[in-house]
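Section 5: illustrative case.
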């Protein structure tokens, strides 16, 4: 399985976490390609390369969306598992998510952090995520809880054919809803979520605005 797998991450000044995260990935899927699209001004890229990761430099930064599009479309594996490089997501679940695509035929597998509120998530963030996911669930007629998960498995051939807008915030919302609208098979599995290493760069108001914008744009265009 590992030779068919790319684990892709978007990194911005993650030198405190990157070695731990890459090592944890390599322990569970040692043959997988580890791919970083990196816009760091610190030593993140150098640390990643020293551990055998493939690094695509995107500097100066172009934003999360263009970086994620580059990662997804540059992966060599037939399945791409995305992961945040802050040690919040369980690397030991990578094989499960990848096999749901490779062996069970799903096109997207969403790692759902929000089956219940994780200790690592503030209550207001949990409520906001729940409400926005409720809007999407009604409009797309599928129970969704986590529109913003950083841990998903995607079939690479689907990504190749999928048309999405990488500009602007909240791209994970479109990467979940666009396949659903296009008739691809989307599956949801609960995962754990831990406290991050390093500081968060999330902007709540911008995220809410772009989440609603992407939900409505995907549904009605």
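Designed sequence:
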């Amino acid at each position: 399985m590992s030779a068919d797998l790319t684990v892709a991450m978007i990194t911005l000044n993650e030198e405190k976490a990157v070695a731990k995260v890459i090592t944890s990935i390599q322990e569970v899927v040692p043959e997988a390609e580890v791919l970083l699209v990196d816009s760091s001004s610190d030593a993140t890229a150098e640390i990643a390369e020293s551990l055998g990761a493939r690094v695509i430099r995107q500097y100066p930064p172009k934003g999360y969306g263009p970086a994620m599009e580059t990662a997804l479309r540059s992966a060599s594996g037939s399945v791409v598992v995305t992961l945040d490089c802050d040690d919040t997501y369980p690397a030991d679940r990578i094989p499960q998510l990848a096999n749901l695509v490779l062996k069970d035929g799903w096109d997207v597998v969403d790692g759902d952090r929000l089956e219940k509120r994780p200790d690592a998530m503030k209550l207001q963030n949990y409520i906001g995520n729940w409400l926005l996911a409720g809007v999407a669930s009604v409009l797309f007629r599928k129970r969704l809880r986590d529109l913003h998960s950083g841990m998903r498995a995607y079939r690479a051939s689907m990504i190749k054919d999928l048309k999405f807008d990488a500009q602007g915030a909240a791209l994970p919302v479109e990467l979940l809803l666009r396949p659903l609208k296009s008739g691809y098979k989307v599956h949801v599995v609960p995962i754990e979520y831990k406290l991050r290493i390093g500081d968060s760069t999330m902007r709540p108001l911008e995220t809410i605005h772009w989440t609603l914008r992407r939900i409505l744009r995907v549904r009605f265009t």
